[in-house]
Amino acid sequence: MFAPAAASAGAGAVFALPLHVGAVRVGVLDLYRARPGGLDGDQLADGLLLADIACALVLDAVQHERPHPDGRRPEPASLAYPQVHQATGMVTVQLGVSAAVALVRLRAYAYAHDRRLHDVATDVVARRLRFHPKPDGDRGGR
């Protein structure tokens, strides 16, 4: 049912790109194009970059919508804190990933452990928390 409806709406091609942080799948980014055919290498790379950005935005939005257990308001924009910048740089080196991926990993860790991003970043900068690449090649945090 979907394919005929999509074609009648003008979609010549549909692409589904995963939104994930390490092995954790957050969702899917669906892209539509009027022209039929696949994506070339540059287009796929651009699409995957957009998926990474969308994933970071989704995680950021979820974190800002959740009230904290102690009743505090959700934290302001995560990049307002210098510790977040410093921790992002440290995780970049620890995992050998880009700054964008490192920030997504920090946000995912904070969300998964029900902590504020600022607090996780403070622990990274103080060297109480370190992210390690996993032996299977996944560069997630622990």
TrEMBL record:
Pfam families: ANTAR. GO terms for molecular function: RNA binding. Gene3D superfamilies: Winged helix-like DNA-binding domain superfamily/Winged helix DNA-binding domain. Residues 70-125 form the ANTAR domain. InterPro entries: ANTAR (IPR005561), WH-like_DNA-bd_sf (IPR036388). This is ANTAR domain-containing protein.
